[in-house]
Amino acid sequence: MRSLGLAATAALLGLVFLGGCAYYGANLHPGISTEAEVRHDMGAPAEVYDNPDGSKLLFFPRGPLGTQTFRATLSGDGRLQRLDQVLSEEFFDRIVVNQTNKDEVRRLIGPPCETMELPRLQQMAWTYRFKDRYSRLSDFSVMLNSAGTVVRKVIVQIDEPPSFTMP
User: Fold this and answer.
1) What pLDDT digit, counting tens, does each position of 36-54 carry?
2) Is domain 87-167 in CATH 3.30.1450.10, yes or no?
3) Are 87 and 109 in contact (CB under 8 A)?
4) Which of 13, 35, 125, 148 has the fewest CB atoms nearer than 10 Å to its CB?
């Protein structure tokens, strides 16, 4: 009887922990939630950008090498408009080589998890860790020239693809 109680307790704790990790911002509602509620639910933003129209962008990376960064878009009256997970190919595709600048990259996908100077190329690399559409761990990097313009984009898959063997 005692082992059944321990097993039930362990299962319940597992559900509680899984429920807590289900989705950041699950308690937030566009058009209703305030900036204070966003900050309470998501924590302190890593970066905040004020737009000329009074709206704001708040970025919430998850982990130092986490695969998710959430961008909360707040209207001029401080209400949540959107909450997007921006480390995805959908957002990376919006970065246009020889057109997008470093400020636009930061406003689109937030702070990189790693930066690297490339002195011989006179470039800076910003890297973002993410899960690709097949859930493979990957790095997305943008290379910026000395003027701050994106000159190259690269996606490198880190995970090995699953291998299947026949018995």
Assistant:
1) 999 999 999 999 999 999 9
2) yes
3) yes
4) 13
The answer to whether residues 47 and 56 touch, using CB atoms and an 8 Å cutoff, is no
Residue type, 95: I
Tens digit of pLDDT for each residue in 67-87? Answer: 999 999 999 999 999 999 999
In the chain, where the domains are located: 23-85, 87-167
pLDDT at 113: 92
- CATH of 23-85 given 3.40.50.2000, 1.10.1200.10, 3.30.1450.10, 3.30.540.10: 3.30.1450.10
Among residues 32, 49, 152, which one has the least CA distance to residue 92? 152
